Amino acid sequence: MPQTPVSFWDTPKFKRGLAKRRAAEWRFKLYGLIAMLIGLASVALLFVSITLNGVGAFWQTQIKLDIFFDPAEFSEENLQAANYGKLVKNTLYSHFPEVTKRKEKRQLSRIVSVGADIMVQKMVMAEPSLIGTTKSIWLPVDDVFDMLHKIDFGRDSSKGGSGLVSENQLKWFDSLVANGLIDSRFNRTYFTAGDSREPELAGLLGALMGSFYTILVTLLISFPVGAAAACYLEEFAPRNRFTDFIEININNLAAVPSVVFGLLGLAVFINFFGLPRSVPLVGGLVLSLMTLPTIIIAGRAALHAVPPSIREGALALGASKTQTVIQEVVPLAMPGMLTGTIIGIARALGETAPLLMIGMVAFIVDIPSGPLDPSTALPVQIFLWVDSPERAFVEKTSGAILILLAFLITMNIVAVWLRQKFERRW
Amino acid sequence: MIFMSSSLRVILTVLAVMLGSFSTSLQAGERDYISIVGSSTVYPFATVVAERFGTSTQYKTPIIESTGSGGGLKLFCAGIGVSHPDVTNASRRIKQSEIDRCAENGISDIVEIKVGYDGIVIAHSTSTDRFSITRRDIFLALAKHVPDPGGEAKLIPNPYQTWKDVNAELPDVAIRVLGPPPTSGTRDAFAELALEAGCKTFDWIKAIRKSDKSQYKSICHAVREDGVWVEAGENDNLIVQKLNADPTSLGVFGFSFLDQNSDLVQGSIVDGVAPEFENIADGSYKISRALYIYVKTAHVDLIPGIKEFIAEFTNDRAWGEDGYLVDKGMIPMSDMERSEFKTAAMDLTTVQLASE
Which residue of A114, A331, A387 is in closest CB contact with B235? Predict the structure, then answer.
């Protein structure tokens, strides 16, 4: 009886080797998984901590005051000059008839935000028919009391936190809360006002508009210029030392730290051309210099991905080189070019360093109405608020980060969507 | 094809509209808002004044950049005209060299307004017992070279590792101090007011001052580089958070941050005096400095509202003892000083540095 030969596949040596390779395979997969989980965990940590810190910014502690617009003091003629501060304070005092001393009254009046009188003024000027009536108005409380209501900041006097809130103020505030006159309400100011040094009056609209104008200028300059440069380099330029030199330089430019572009902007646009400081036009010019290399590189890659058969087909049918490029190649490469542009613009949206040099990192209250009005930008606003001593700016900062992140995520999603919808596979 | 031409048309239209609006507004070439640069220490106060000024007058709200005292004066002295700032903030006095630089660029008249004081605190977490130190302790703990503990008149590299090594009455915890970087005005003031003051208590070092001023300065101002002094950047909020996380370390920053974060940090007692409002105001707390704003006289007629802005800053409702700047942590000047600087400000008196 012939012995069945032991197959090589059944030898113990082979089985050991196989087990080892499988284990190596499994380990390799595990490393990848761990790496991905670390990345995911850090992103999750960032989002969770910023969200927890930041949601408070969208809510503002407010006080309900029933304000009577006395026709004896207010008439349509003196709306501008009338004393609204007194009106707000007197309404607040009426809840505490026992407070009579001047110093105590002063302390009591600190509960309401210093901006309350202007809010009331705006309300009456918009609607003069309020005169002679009593209206319940929700007004923001001072940032210290906002923090007191939200996180009990300053309540524990044994910790030395009594510096900002006196015992009397604590007593009054608690009685207002007990009477249901204090409530956390949606913070509209946060989205409709410019910057302020009073956290309860500070808003993001100025920074959002500044970012909008800056990015608009960036887009209008960097996209046409970048697309044209990519087209020329990819489709028309001869291959020689000179174009190689340009290509190397474009790749180098993409890696230059952004603050260098700020210095360039300061030297060229402000000092040489005499454009004003702190304006989105200069910011946009600087950021377009920064995004240009990204757009050119992405554009060239997109054009390169269009198969030569398309060009040859068009040329064979009698189209000129320009007709071929504009009518056939560029439309096919457009999704890729747009993706590159959006990613470049998203990076520009998050930049602070170049704006520092051209004076856009500044305290600016008025909301810009055009690219030549001084303004800040969203990341700059975050930078400025982080550095403010008032506690309430901590949550305002995180709130602004949330909004910036929302914009960046939206832009990236649009980029991905564009790529998937229009991408052609050959 | 259709996609391309329609988007091209939109882009071209928008470009044309934008260019049109740029060229019309560029031709104006004037500025209707005040431009302010300068110290990050004065920034929180100047911005409050600017905001009130903007809401209470018909003028636009001034624009304030935080560039540091030195950076601000450099921009300020660059020239006259709408492209240069009108006002600069400083947490130290202007230097003769800077006045000369201004004069070279045609700025001969600068108004100096002292606006108040700022205390520098050495704070730590509220979870530990309050620290009480002297400026001599601060110098011994932080200087790069310290006098030989043996009593001889020579310097040795700083050997102290714990506060107890420095002074037997202090607790036995490692020295670790978080503070601002050398670019900061706070750091300059801290070196001068705390380190140098502690340094001067050694008679033989004080004697060097007369013979060799630069050597004296390098002995007294040099901070150790072995990791005991940690440069925590310009962001004072960050220092507050780090102090909270590590209760044994100390942090150096301005009084306004202590005032706003008193639930997390407390100020150490220095030379027996606590860093409290009253003590800084009457001068008994020694580590405090004056804050200034400088105004370009030539711009007063060029930019609308400068005089009114100065008037708001020097109004008692702003810088007075009950003013809103005090609520933000600034230490007011005495009545006499206030009226003196208000007069100088309103008359636009040009600054004269007394010759040293």
Answer: A387
A344-402 pLDDT per residue, tens: 999 999 999 999 889 898 999 999 998 999 999 999 999 999 888 888 898 999 999 99
Task: Work out the angle at residue A17's Cα, subtended by the Cα atoms of residues A13 and A20, and round it to the nearest 5 degrees.
Answer: 140
Q: Which two tokens stand for residue A59?
A: 């809510």
* Chain A environment of B66 (Cβ under 8 Å): 361-363, 387
Q: What angle do CA A48, A397, A261 make, to 5 degrees?
A: 105
Are A230 and A411 in contact, with CB atoms under 8 Å apart? Answer: no
- In this complex, is the C-beta atom of B146 within 8 Å of any C-beta atom belonging to chain A? no
Number of H helices and E strands in chain B, helices first, is 17, 13
DSSP H helices, A55-115, are 84-93, 102-109
Q: Which domains does chain B have, with CATH numbers?
A: 31-117+290-346 (3.40.190.10), 119-288 (3.40.190.10)
Interface test with B, best of A387, A398, A421 (most B CBs within 10 A): A387
Q: What is the CATH number of domain A205-422?
A: 1.10.3720.10
User: Three-class SS of residue B212?
Assistant: coil
- For A39-52, the DSSP string reads HHHHHHHHHHHHHH
For residue B23 the two structure tokens come to 């060229």
Question: Bridge-partner residues for A63, per DSSP?
Answer: A139, A182
CA atoms of B68 and B75, how far apart (whole Å): 11
Question: Taking the mean position of all CA atoms in its chain, how far away is CA B162?
Answer: 30
Three-state SS at B267:
strand
Comparing C-alpha atoms, which of A179, A202, A205 is closest to residue A113?
Answer: A202
Rounded CA gap, B287 and B267, in Å? 12
Burial of B60 (0-12, 13-18, 19+ CB in 10 A): buried
To the nearest whole Å, the CA of A43 is away from the closest chain B CA by 21
Q: What is the pTM of this model?
A: 0.81
CA–CA separation, B155 and B139 (whole Å): 13
**What confidence tens digit (pLDDT) does each residue in B322-346 have?**
888 887 888 888 888 899 999 988 8
Q: Which amino acid is at A394?
A: V
B87 Cβ partners below 8 Å, 6+ apart? Answer: B34, B35, B36, B37, B38, B62, B76, B293, B294, B295, B296, B306, B309
Residues B282 and B288: their CA atoms lie apart, in Å, by: 11
Residues 268-297 of chain A with CB under 8 A from chain B are: 270, 274-278, 281
Q: Where are the domains of chain A?
A: 56-97+104-122+133-187, 205-422
* Cα–Cα distance for residue pair A81/A79, rounded to 1 Å: 6
Q: Are B80 and B299 in contact (CB under 8 A)?
A: yes
